[in-house]
Specification:
Blueprint lengths: L2 E7 L7 H12 L5 E7 L2 E7 L13 E3 L6 E9 L2 H7 L11 H12 L9 E9 L4 E6 L8 E4 L3 E5 L2 H8 L7 H10 L13 E3 L4 E5 L4 E5 L14 H18 L7 E4 L4 H16 L4 E5 L13 H13 L2 E4 L4 H10 L13 H10 L4 E3 L15 H7 L3 H12 L5 H25 L16 H9 L12 H10 L2 H13 L5 E3 L5 H9 L6 E2 L2 E2 L1 H6 L6 H4 L7 H25 L12 H13 L5 H22 L3
Parallel strand pairs: 13-14, 13-16, 14-15, 16-17
Antiparallel strand pairs: 1-3, 1-9, 2-3, 4-5, 5-6, 6-7, 7-11, 8-9, 8-10, 11-12, 18-19
Helix pairs in contact: 1-4, 5-14, 6-7, 7-8, 9-20, 11-13, 20-21, 21-22
Length: 636
């Protein structure tokens, strides 16, 4: 994963090379292989490269293409997955090994202009200076795997792969974004496709293109998941074959690298399928896969009490991977808490991923495969399948599925009533309730416990994120989860954090082809004869061990309890240190009531593990407040 950055003066004045240098320094403090820049007149573009694909080693960016007067200059962070197809359509005759991904994008732009991102498949963020049209053209991939931040005002336009890159270009004129603060304290994270904590610095949304000229801005969406039509195959086997082929392609194209590869492996369906397929492909090349588990390795006699570790170990043994866990303790979590910067979408959620990144980087691995996004889309649990089939003309599949789900179970009437209530009546009641509630009614307790009264009112008035309680179909559930911001927040957070370790996250289950297929499937592909995640299980049958294939949702009791104990120990120590040394930003915050915060921190320090569930939300409120006050201090 490389970094891009640059400036465009909308008044036609020469860009300041020292500002470009300041932006570059944000990225050169992290692992990189090369850096370069191009400045001419009102435009300056830069690139800090971290090699990964074989072709990236031949890539020198920014790159100038064409004759004077009609030159195109590109800087890009990109991995294209349909290079062969594009080479044919663009009539590229040179060996593909000699063609970089940015070369392909330039030729695509020459052929299709601003429509070229629609033809690309993969992860990308790029900027092109079009000399003839005197415009800057920007694009971000369909799902938003690659990050793109920017700031635009009457004087100019600045952009970068990391929010700190843009911040370096504006320096003294930075202020905190109130709307971002209110949303953060409303939801617990900044679930937004555009907002950042910096006033005036925005994210280019996924599947968006942006054109900037001296006089105007044009921001457009070039693809929407909502526009994918439903499909129907004749047989279950037809669905299964299609999905299996898509999964294999999605994994294989993400193994285009000159470096060793790592993968998450939790023992669940998503990570197991990805690890199994990747290990097989790499083995055929004479290479191996390393897998990593968030779960600490169990001690003597603990294996059977820990289904997550046991299933992951079984998968690793079958696939022949080198399986590792990470060491987790309160001291490590405390160190993470002290360093978190929420301006980069950093979060204490899934904090153990920090340790995985360190472990992967220490092994010289630059690619980390993840199953993130599967639960929301292709391996969706099908919670709305029954009501979907009931309302949309699949009565035969619904009745047959319920009958087969009951099978030989005793107390069939009780089981039947439970299925009907959970699968049909309850979603209808939720839907009706949502229609009767005010549009801005909150869906959960917010995180504003330690804010001033006026701030709390503003947070209450902030519209909540539209979660999925009002839907009546699997498709609408998938679209809600895709669009609500949770998925994108994780992508942004991990992308920003990965720069410091030189890791390139790759998400096979967020391949555009797979998510389009997921959204087009009928509900019986997600719930069939009582089996959840039905089609995904069928597609990976024979690839993962039977114990994983037949396993219900893993509750991970041991892992969760152990992590909660670690977290509580670290948080109490952190609160103790903060209370004794003085809270960061105390007396200077526009949002946080430090008197109330300090009082409850004293209570938190004395809480024992039996009170953990009772105080967990209060702990979260304290943590969010402290993260925010630390952020505020950076603006003072």
């Amino acid at each position: 994963m490389s970094a891009i950055f640059g400036l465009f003066d909308r008044n036609g004045l020469p860009v300041d090379a020292t500002v470009i240098s300041s932006m570059e320094q944000v990225f050169t403090k992290w692992p990189h292989d090369s850096r370069s820049g191009w400045c001419e007149g009102e435009v300056g573009l830069g690139h800090v490269s971290l090699w990964n694909t074989p072709e990236s080693k031949n890539e020198v960016l920014p790159k100038v293409h064409g004759a004077n007067g009609e030159r195109l200059v590109i800087t890009a962070d990109v991995r294209l997955d349909n290079r062969e197809e594009l080479a044919c359509r663009l009539q590229i005759n040179d060996p593909l090994s000699a063609i970089t991904d940015s070369d392909v994008i330039l030729l695509a732009y020459r052929k299709w202009g601003e429509n070229c991102p629609r033809e690309l498949l993969g992860d990308f963020a790029f900027v092109i200076w079009d000399e003839l049209e005197e415009k800057i053209f920007c694009a971000r991939d369909h799902v938003g795997i690659r990050s793109f931040y920017y700031r635009l005002d009457e004087a100019g336009f600045s952009f970068a792969s990391h929010v700190h890159g843009v911040a370096a270009a504006v320096k003294n004129s930075l202020s905190i974004c109130k709307d971002a603060v209110y949303l953060y304290l409303k939801e617990g994270e900044l679930y937004s496709s555009e907002l950042t904590f910096y006033e005036g610095i925005k994210k280019l949304p996924p599947a968006s293109i942006m054109t900037i000229r001296e006089g105007n801005l044009d921001l457009r969406t070039y693809w929407r998941l909502e526009d994918v039509p439903p499909i129907e195959e004749n047989t279950v086997q037809a669905y299964t074959n299609t999905l299996k082929q898509l999964l294999e392609k999605a994994v294989e194209c993400r193994l285009r690298t000159d470096y060793s590869v790592a993968s998450h492996l939790s023992g669940g369906l998503d990570s197991s399928a990805i690890s199994a397929m990747a290990a097989k492909i790499l083995s055929q090349r004479g290479e191996s896969l390393s897998t990593y588990n968030w779960c600490p390795a169990p001690g003597e006699g603990e294996q059977t009490a820990d289904p997550e570790w046991a299933l992951a170990a079984a998968m690793a043994k079958q696939a022949g991977t080198t399986h590792r866990s990470v060491e987790l303790n309160s001291e490590k979590f405390l160190s993470i808490l002290e360093d978190i910067d929420v301006s980069t979408s950093d979060t204490s959620d899934l904090w153990y991923e920090f340790e995985v990144r360190k472990a992967v980087a220490s092994e010289g691995q630059r690619t980390l495969l993840s199953g993130w996004g599967g639960d929301q889309l292709i391996s969706n649990y099908g919670n709305y399948s029954l009501i979907d089939m009931f309302l949309h003309g699949h009565a035969r599949e619904l009745l047959g599925g319920i009958w087969n789900a009951l099978g030989g179970k005793k107390r069939k009437l009780r089981k039947l009533l439970g299925l009907v209530y959970r699968g049909i009546i309850s979603p209808c009641l939720d839907h009706l309730r949502s229609k009767l509630m005010r549009p801005d009614s909150d869906h959960h307790q917010n995180f504003a416990a330690y804010t001033y009264v006026g701030v709390a009112r503003e947070i209450d008035d902030t519209p909540p994120i539209p979660w999925n309680r009002a839907v009546l179909s699997v498709r609408d559930d998938q679209l809600t989860q895709y669009n609500c911001g949770h998925l994108q927040n994780r992508l942004d957070s991990w992308a920003a954090a990965a720069y410091s370790t030189g890791i390139d996250y790759r998400f096979p289950l967020l391949d555009k082809r797979i998510i389009e297929y997921a959204i087009s499937l009928p509900p019986q592909c997600y719930w069939h004869n009582g089996q959840i995640r039905f089609l995904f299980r069928e597609a990976i049958s024979g690839i993962v061990p039977p114990a994983i294939l037949s396993s219900p949702m893993i509750m991970e009791v041991r892992r969760v309890r152990k992590l909660l104990d670690i977290e509580m120990g670290a948080i109490k120590l952190w609160f103790q240190q903060q209370s004794s040394s003085g809270l960061v930003g105390e007396g200077q915050s526009s949002y946080i009531d430090f008197a109330a915060l300090a009082g409850d921190m004293e209570m938190a320090v004395t809480a024992d593990s039996s009170q953990q569930d009772m105080v967990s939300h209060r702990f979260d409120c304290m943590i969010k407040s402290m993260f925010l006050s630390s952020l505020e201090s950076n603006f003072q």
